Amino acid sequence: MILGKPQFTLEEVTVTECNRIKSLFPASVAKDNIQRLDVSSCAESVEIVANNEVAKKEENKEVTIFTKLTSLTLTDLPYLKSICSEMQIIDASDVDSFENSSSCVLLPSYLLPCLGKLKQLHVEKCDFVEAIFDVIDVPTPDANIIVIPLETLILKQLPNLSHIWNNDPNGSLSFTLEEVTISECKSIKSLFPASVAKDNIEKLDVLATNSPSSQSSYPQDRDIITIENHSILSTGTVAPNLVKLSLNKEDIITGEKELLHVDLQNIETLTLQNFHDESDVFPNDFFWKVSLPNIQKLQLTGSAFEELFQSKRPEIEQLTKILSRLKKLKLKNLYKLKSIGLEQSWVALLLENLNVLKVLECSSLTNLVPPTVQSFSGLTELHVEGCAGLKYLFTSSTAKGLVALDELSVSNCELLETVVLHEESDKPEDHVIFPELWDLSLSKLPRLASFYTGNSTLKFRWLMYVSISQCKSMETFSYGNLVAHKLNPVDIDEDQWSKVDLNTAIHQQFEKGKEATLS
Predict the structure, then answer these.
(1) Closest by CA position to 72, among listed 49, 101, 50
(2) Disease resistance protein At4g27190-like leucine-rich repeats domain: which residues (predicted)?
(3) How far is residue 91's CA from residue 299's CA, in Å, rounded to a whole number?
(4) Cα–Cα distance between 420 and 281 in angstroms, integer?
């Protein structure tokens, strides 16, 4: 025990790497004004409140500890079984329930009425914990509902966690959950009892439970909302306010019935991931089974798709409708992708309405936007990174259709030689105009020689910020006239150029680099 009778008011307590501590403090300290409690890496701790303070039941006596606690974080406590495993209110008539209660439930039932201010609960790497809330014998004096204003619940790497609630509270408890994260809890059997309100949940992240797909070694976005093992969802509609959802291949193949319990009406971001078999194709049929009226963002990650949008128009009009609603498309680590398929005629509505396109770590992609794509009228942001097979981004005719593009960033593309490839029909008197582009970033492009290979006039009405770094082969920006009246000083590697035009600045920086290499 590390604390005796307090001589001062505690509001925040942080304990870390105190390996010999069995318990933190007595109940007399826990009754104090503690608002935030963070305990981590205490190898021998079995509880937080000392187990030698067993309260005897007396008339009108209640446990009153942690009544002001708003945030509780418990991480890397391998022997922790409960907050206060032996601190029970007992009498002779209560012996049976005491003996039958689980000693590995983190928050015992008698403690729950005290948690009237708890908003955040994070439990991680606590091997003995089997459940979080003990609701088998929840005390409800005067039949009042116990209100716990818990908004954020994070549970990670709890190998023996089988339930969050060890029973259905049947209305005796009220929560206001908004964000729930469950990760690497391989024994979990259920998330939500039927009576636990799920209407407020906006973010539900369930990763790497006991589904086969959880064994993937491919990196996953951690900012996405994921439901992997749908069998842990109880019956009834789950999270009608859920706005983000991520599905694996296994979910789509085997999880159709469980998906019926997930309300998809408010889904704004959908992620499809972990299609690793060579025969895997983009799951067009899936979109026939779901309705996504509010979809805005589609993310495809960690998969072996070679082509996304095929030449044959899908028989399922639902996919076309979903694409027409998209504002953002993110492709990440599609390591066999050769064609996105933006040239297909039935994808035209996507090109009109898409605002943001991110293509990251697609190493087999050799063609981003085919020359036949003449209009990308809605695109405002384009980010390309780690696409080793690209030699250029788009042709001059396609560039003329980027009328709304205002941000462009390209990085880590080993073979990229130019951003805009000229066409035979380009003439010096022609203009390639970027009417809205104001921010341009080029970095780690070892073979980039120029932004535009032609001699037509490049015109930027709003270009203000240009950043170029580690583009050692870049000799010029373009080979024709360049108009960029609003351009601020240009950052090239560690130098800033302000008194010369962009072509001159890049050329002089190139010569400077050559001299440094020779010397």
Answers:
(1) 49
(2) 102-206, 374-476
(3) 57
(4) 30
- Cα distances (angstroms) measured from residue 188 to each of 160, 183, 212, 229: 8, 10, 14, 10
426-430 long-range contacts (CB < 8 A, ≥24 apart) are: 426/396, 426/454, 426/455, 426/456, 427/456, 428/455, 428/456, 428/457, 428/480, 428/481, 429/456, 429/457, 430/456, 430/457
In DSSP terms, 505 is beta-bridged to none
Q: Residue 17 corresponds to which amino acid?
A: E
DSSP letters along 472-517, please? Answer: TT---S-SS-EE-TTPPPEEETTEEE-SS-HHHHHHHHHHHHHHHH
Q: Are 63 and 40 in contact (CB under 8 A)?
A: no
What is the distance between the alpha carbons of residues 87 and 111, in angstroms, rounded to a whole number? 9
What is the chain's length?
519
Cα dist from 378 to 177, 236, 382, whole Å? 37, 39, 11
What mean pLDDT is reported for the chain? 82
pTM of the model: 0.68
Tell me the C-alpha distance between 145 and 139, whole Å: 10
Residue of 235, 236, 237, 181 whose CA lies nearest to 209: 181
23-74 pLDDT, tens per residue? Answer: 887 777 766 688 999 999 998 888 888 755 444 333 344 567 888 999 999 9
